[in-house]
Amino acid sequence: MTLFTLTPLSATIFFVVACLAGYKYRRVWKAEGPAWQLWISGLIAAGSLLTLAFVPLSPGG
Predict the structure, then answer these.
(1) Fewer beta carbons below 10 Å: N end or C end of the chain?
(2) Alpha carbon distance 20, 39 (integer Å)
(3) Cα–Cα distance between 25 and 31 in angstroms, integer?
(4) Triad 14, 17, 41: Cα angle to 5°
(5) Please, what sign has the CA dihedral across residues 9, 23, 45, 43?
(6) 51, 14 contact by CB (below 8 A)
(7) Domain extents for the chain?
(8) What pLDDT, in 10s, does the model give residues 17-58?
């Protein structure tokens, strides 16, 4: 058993956060908004997707 695992609920939350952050990134990018907002929302989206990619899902939930 690994030390860190995601439950189905936490994986869903990470996925929703990644989608919302990606949507925010795209809106700011299209509006040519401030670069700091691009960085923040991009890092949140990337961190969420990397967490989903590399942290295993718990089998039992």
Answers:
(1) N
(2) 14
(3) 10
(4) 125
(5) negative
(6) yes
(7) 8-54
(8) 999 999 999 999 999 999 999 999 999 999 999 999 999 998
